[in-house]
User: Fold these one by one.
Assistant:
Number 1:
Amino acid sequence: MKNILYLLSAVLLAFLIPNQVSAQEIGGIPMDASVKKGVLSNGLTYYIRKNSKPEQKVELRLVVKAGSILETEKQLGLAHFMEHMNFNGSKNFNKNELVDYLQSIGVKFGAHLNAYTSFDETVYILPIPTDNDEKLEKGFQILEDWAFNASLTEEEIDKERGVVLEEYRLGLGAGKRMMKNYLPKLMHNSHYAERLPIGTKEVLENFTYNDLRSFYRDWYRPDLMAVIAVGDVDVAVLEQKIKDHFESYPAAKNPKERVEYTVPNHKETFVAIESDKEAPNSTVQLYYKDLDDKKPVQNLKAYRKGIVNSLFVKMINKRLNELRNAEKPPFVFGYSTHGGTWAKSKAAYQSAAMTSEEGQLKALETLVLENERVFRHGFHEGELERVKDEMLNAMERAFKEQDKTESSRFASEYIRNFLKEEVIPGVTWEYEMLKKLIPTIRIEDCNALISGYIHDDNRVVIFTGPEKEGTVKVKEADVLKVLSEVKNKEVLPYEDKEVAKSLLKEIPKKGSIVSKERDELLDVTNLVLSNGAKVTYKKTDFKNDKIIFSAYSYGGTSLYTDEEVHKTDIANNALTQAGVNGFSITDMSKVLSGKMVSVNPTIGALSEGFHGSSTPKDVELLFQLTHLYFTKLNHDVKAYNSFKAKMTAYLKNVLAEPSTYFSVKLNDFLNANDPRYVGFPDEKVWENTDYDLAYKKYQERFADASDFNFYFVGNIDDAKIEAYVETYLASLPSTYSKEKFKNVAAKPLKGILKKNIKKGKEAKSKVRVIYQGEAKYKSKDAYYLKSLGEVLSIKLIEQLREEEGGVYGVGARGSMSKYPKGSYNFTISFPCGPENVEKLTKKAFLELEKIQKNGISEKDLNKIKETQLLEYKEQQKKNSYWLALLKNADFGKYDRSKALDKVKQIEALTSKDIQKVAKKYLKKNRIIATLNPED
């Protein structure tokens, strides 16, 4: 689901975010003057931009046009292996000194410092603090070493084999087994079908040292590289650093040809129907691969076509989303788009869906039918106008935020410019051009696209799903029959129903602000309203075009009986699917089209509340929606039935996936003492669910505004927000009930316990160690436990990954909760091979015991302090940080101003503080949970 969502959002946003490409003006498309692009004498390309978001930080990237597609048969997986080796010793950093140094200046391995390898490229990501010249110089030294000076010692190569094999192990499972069968059809006769970046187990275990060194020697060369530097440093300084570190390396003599591989066309329709006992869900993928190879945007005509494509995609997906929200939805989720495939040179029109296990053919028919509907009848003017508004508003927002854009965003754009030749005219040019082009785009332009998108040749259909008794497997003939029959069906035009211009039929009778108080220390305004509600707002300049908000009232499901909790738990998630004030969620999306606003009511264990966001322009809508969710939530059984159908289809087979099964069964074990624990929503849970009761309890929870606290942070106009507060919040009904949440928490499990769970046929295990128990909440101990998790993570990476080569990732995390009753929780978790579970678990305990016995070194203490200081410095410039701070302080009943002492708290942290909490909390109650394969 995440991958489908990510692909869809990435395509939809492709023309809403500033895109970037070429150093000169191309076909009327200029290059953004704020970026300096150059090429050194040896062929290395560079991009530089001064940007102060965040302050005193520079984002460095090394981009290499070399990925798995360039590997020989003896090198399968070595492009990715080379990426790993660049963290394991170089000319200026022996063995693990690189990660060690970066941690010492606050840069986390994995969270900040990272890299990735794909088919056509390898990209190294290095954020560096720039509060002194030495750190900046070291940053460029690291990039230089990655590019040209990796050590590649035999000892380190052999040690890293274990780590990469563990990453390979993580990818094993139903998805990979099925992909192995359908990929040759999707990437028919293409090199891409045989070059997955992770490689093969056989090669990773047996490649020679020279196989890796030759890959590095052949492909890590200046003409295939780009260095990107974006941050709070003068352009001239950054350019000189690049020249100092990279210009002295000569261009490659007689360089190996960098072949650009393609995906050949085919006349037939390929059908792949794959199933697996561990497949968690069923999917349908329909590809119409373009007949011509993909070309970069080179002129305004192509740029305009890209905008037309984006409008087309938005319109067809709104139709599919409408079908998804029907009482009997044809799929859990469905989308269509035109965009790239795994191959750099080949794009495709793609329609895909997640379905029930028996609904694949119905989903395919629906997708093909909706494509056919557009082909025969096209879109309506109303549909086009709505998506035009959306696109213009999104670009306007990007335009307004251009001086607040994070450096990492610019760096990503320049990566795409280097690798894919995407244009980089800058957001000002794009906004002005969009305003000119949008009025010229007619409905005929959008309707005409699909005739080039769908065709009988170059077509691939892929079904994936669970293999189980009683499930009738779809046959290739069934798939081809659906494709053929839709062509001969009667297809009616889409009906675009008119909706109201506003969700609110009349403005409520306003209340008043009865008191106003300024907190000068935190630059916050506090209001008390005539109905008893409280409002806190803070005006910031961190974002020009965004306001975020949150709200809470004590109570939540803690005020439900045990029976009510069981009857409403799932249905609570369906309530907002009904819409508000007589408008369905489909109608709401039309009314709100082009508006940047979202409001989401929630009912939690201890409170009910809201979270959402808007632009300053649309902030009144945010208040209106909040008012309507308080007073006019619809009761719609059909909407609930739609939610239930989608969720049951999605959840029906997820327990076949071993990791999900492990998490669910572990939760069952941990909550064995809790009579209110609902657990996995199986058929029994659904049978016991009562939508009417959930709706009734929702009305009860939101019947009294007097005990609600509202928080707003962002680019706020004081006069406007106070006027909206009076109109839409002070007018809410109040009963002055003064509710508090109840302590209904169950006793956590005690003692030294083990839980062994078996699932799956791959040789994959997981270990999760949990320390938990009741304890009086202390803010200092909470901070010390969190810090213990950070330092133990560093030590576990050093020992379990770097020394043992037994894991790819490992981490520890500690926390304390104040409500409903004081408690602590500390976890250590990692995946590994079944044969290493016992050994690595003992190693993890040994590292913890060292801290309990001796504390931590000054060096490790300084590492986590530097990271915390760096993160705090950046957090202070984020609206989300302040929203959470203000809300959590009130919810937890502590002084907000204590947050200003964070630097002092970090600086005062000692080894003894961490040792003390390690000894205090991590001894009595421990659970070791393991997932092992069934065989």
Number 2:
Amino acid sequence: MGSSDGTGRSPADTDSDPLGGPYLRTRFALPARPATFLRRQRLVVHLNQALRTPLTVINGAAGAGKTLLTADWAAGLRLPVAWLTVETGDHPPGVFWAYVFESLRVCGARAGGAPGAPADSSGVGHRLLASLAAELNALDRPVVLVLDEYDRMTNPEVAEQLEFVLHHAGPGLHLVLVTRTEPLLPLHRYRAADKLTEIRGSELSFTPEEADALLRLHGLQLPEHAASALVDRTRGWAAGLRLCALAARESTDPEQYLKDFEADHSTVADFLLAEVLRGRTQEEQDLLLRISVLDRFCPGLADALTSRADAGLLLAGLHGENAFIERLGHSWYRLHPLFREILRAHLRERMPGAEPELHLRAARWLRRAGFLAETLAHAAAGGDFDLAAGALVDNLAIGQLFTGLRSDALARLFADMGPEARSPASDLVRAARALARRDLGHGLNRLRQVQNHLSDAEDSPDLTATRLSCTLLEALAARLTGCPSRAEQAAATAEELRRDLPDHLLDEHQELTSLLLVHVGSVRLWEGRFDDARAVLTRVAGARGGPATVLPRAESLGHLALIDYLNGWLGRAERRALAAVAEAERAGLPRPPGASLGRVVLTAVAVDRQELDQARALLAETYRLPAREHDPVPMAGRALAVSRLLLDDGETDAAVEAAEPAVSAAVTSPWAESYAAVVRSAACLADGRPEKAVRLLHGVSGDPPVCAVEAAAIQVAAGRPRAAVELLDSVRAEGRTGPAVSVGAALVRARVAQESGRAVTARRLVARALLDARRERLRRPFLQAGDWIEPLLATAPLHELAEGWLLSGRRRAHGEPVRPGPDPAPLVPVELSGRERDVLRRLARTMSAEEIAADLYVSVNTVKTHLKSVYRKLAVNRRGDAVRRARELGLL
């Protein structure tokens, strides 16, 4: 018998709903799980928390797997489960509650004599809802009510009634809402009271391991990288993974199919268009199509593309409805990758030719907002390279073409720049790209064009950034041509221009100043002005300006290491070279430029220590690094190391040939010329032509000191002791020369003394040389000294100083192989760098090189380089010996 006040009908009247139609029993049935359904235990465990909270919300996009997940979980419960799939026709409260009552009756949760369902489709009486709440509260076992597709319910009156029943049902009801949108319930109160279980889109996404298991259920076995790539592309979206798997299963090559998969021509497109795009308002569809050209977007950027001002509300609504828009934070969003692909295809169909203009609108907005990287990408995509180049130059970011971090990406971005781009900024970028690949001809030509334009233009503040960027390329051109005056002029101009630019812009792009100083320092080094070069290079090496300045710091350290080597400080050169290599590797690049000179110096140091196998290995590493043609200093450094190594191997002709690049720059270097002359002279001496060897030394002076000492050794070997002593006297030590100079000079003077009959003086000088050399592990000068030193080293005091570290197999004839003897315990205190001590401490804990690298956040190669240095300084060859010796010396 029906109730006139809408409180309910008797159970006998519940065969039909309030609208008079029969109940649709499929709405009360748990959805069947397909054979390829994958149970994800982590989500089942989370869902089990629903039994401890009154309310559970499973909120995710269409196809996220919400319904099947909940159905699978519900099927395994021992509690009664009332399942109801909500439909759009349930908006009238009476209809909705009639179906809720029926779902509870079907699962057996209601007693036979309980009040029936609402009689009126338009409403439901408060007494009936109160009776239902009281009835549920009195149950011995709680009932789980699942409302699937609850996002279809948008009637706030129903939401209030549902919250009333949930509140008063107490422990008798667990409500589970499966929805695409945020339900109209006071979720904040449930969260605050810890009475809410939530599973959202990010948690519903498949992990790579789960995706692999799902693909296997579909009969697909893909390599790990292929499965991971599919997860990245689908963002772990359940429907996307399943539809891709079903399509790939029909292919003869599933892996290749998924790699070439076109989302816009697939069942994925059909799904997303049906579930997300269709049914949207014209404004929402227009917004989605236009923002599909963007990787990420905010309301302001979206407004710029739509020429409207309502993007903020539309985006918030679309995100709230899980319309495949992800929130990134701070009002930024992004589209799901597959959805974006499909939208872009529809953009081309619906608005042909609109894409370039949308990119340019985005580029202009992003430039004003200060997002340089995205400005460049969209300007290039829109075909406006003047805009892209202007943004790069005006932001003082042209140095990024040289830092290695974004150099390749920027080179690819500007690769399509055609002749239609004619602005000074575009020509400046062309010049930078040419100089970066060491194409001097094209680079200098473009640079002259920019300079001509700037000289014709007024002294406009708008061109200050262009002028400053131009000085960077000027300094680089000077470095590559070895022209000191040009580099100094560029540095002076840059200093003046910096005053007219905002500090924040200079701070954001410290790489420009760092690169300029490195170029100036390199040219000063090439010119032989070591102290002046050290002054600017030290500024760069000691600066801390973020990732963009890592490689300028590495290059400065490499140059400083070479200066130390040329002044005879092997240990100091080695430490700085190791720091240069480590700094370059810290940039995270597989082949970091800037590490080359550091490895060249390490090679030269290894040659002086007669660790020839290590020298060859280091030299091989430099050949695997990016080429540095037309860069005089690295070329000269490599020529120096290679030629000396070849000399020690007895390859005199090859040594002379290898020394030639040292003097191939447009402007010659005094020290590079001197070293080339010494190599040619040493080769002649080795080939038995002392007269020619002496003539080749004409012009070699006291700078650099190491070179002068080697020239003096050749002079005395050729029978010209007075010339040798005069050359040594011209060396300006002044406290700046290291052991390699003092050892070489002492041996030359010792030979002169020995051959003039002053044996006591000769022994004293050799003893001093041995003491200085042992500290640096310096062996080469003794091996190159000649037979005259043999009797002296055989004497007891000198023998004790040489025993155990100087090479045991001394070369007696040209080409005879050198065999190093065992390393001794150091006679002087061992000095380890802070990072070497870090490595040593972990070595003592029996950690592997890989474990040490992971613990210190460096590469394995860096760890091995430090280990080699530690072994050398401790005069050991094995890990255990290193730890034991370090403990003896109190280093551990």
